[in-house]
Amino acid sequence: MSSLTKYRKSELISLAADLNVELLPNDTVVNILIKIKESPDYDADFALDTIKCIREEKEIEEKRLERQEAEAAQIREYELEKLRLTQSNDTASVRSNASNGSQNYRIPSIKSVLSPFDPEKSDVSLFLTVFKRQADKLGIPDEELVTQLISVLPANMTELIIRDTGDDTDDFEVVKKILLERFRLSTDAYRVKYMTHQKGVNSLWKDLVFELNSYFNGWLEGAEVDTFEKLKDLMIADQIKRRASPEIKNTFCRQMGTDE
Questions:
Q1: Are both 82 and 119 inside the same structural domain?
Q2: Domain containing residue 17
């Protein structure tokens, strides 16, 4: 029995299942060991052989999953490398012209002026706008934009680009459209950000103006506002929804044809 104490709780639970031992969700390791020992089907040698097999099978499965993850990572890296090589070839002439004969010319890295995108904290529309502005300031050629963008995106967004762009992998506008369709904030999220966004401690007032403008445009685009009349209706409806009682708000929204 003492030989079973060196095994993990999950392995003991599997052994108990093989021996038809009923366990409770809050059973401790000690309780599980006692129940196994008191089982009518308990045999020390058989139990030890069984739990050894359980561990071996689990280790085999873990190694199989590790191999799968490693292979998937290799495939992703291979696809990324193909993308980099393709874009590198496409921009060779651009680099040559920009270098003016210098052997040491190197295209600036966007990572020197832009932090990686965090989908949990940032708006992809605003990020892409800032990215393009910074890329233009650095003089990054259009053919290099996607490669530079990938360097500041998380893995799941990079995989989406590789999977969905097809032959347009190096087309920034195509990549931008795909990212906006997948990660763009909802219309109401843009409204909330526009209403609540504040100036950062280390940011400039012009940064706040730029960010508010981006959130406001996102709100209008999501609400399909393209005329002054629609803008007026949207602003009035928003004020009503924020200030009126639920009954009045619902009635007004039905009359205006807007969402609650």
A1: no
A2: 1-87
User: What is 94-123 written as a DSSP string?
Assistant: HHHHHHTT-TT--PPPGGGT-PPP-TTTS-
For residues 123 and 189, give the distance between their C-alpha atoms in angstroms, rounded to a whole number: 10
Q: How far apart are CA 224 and CA 112, in angstroms?
A: 36
The answer as to whether 132 is a domain residue is: yes
d(CA 151, CA 174): 17
- Residue 66 belongs to a domain: yes
209, part of any domain:
no
pLDDT tens per residue across all 260 residues of the chain:
458 888 888 888 888 888 888 888 888 988 888 888 888 878 888 888 888 888 888 888 888 888 777 766 666 666 666 566 555 555 555 555 555 544 555 778 888 888 888 887 778 888 888 899 889 988 888 888 988 998 898 888 888 888 887 777 788 888 888 888 787 777 777 777 777 777 777 667 877 787 787 778 777 877 788 888 888 888 887 777 777 666 665 665 566 555 55
Domain co-membership, 22 together with 80: yes
pTM recorded for the entire structure = 0.46
SS3 168: helix
- Token digits for 136? 């233009």
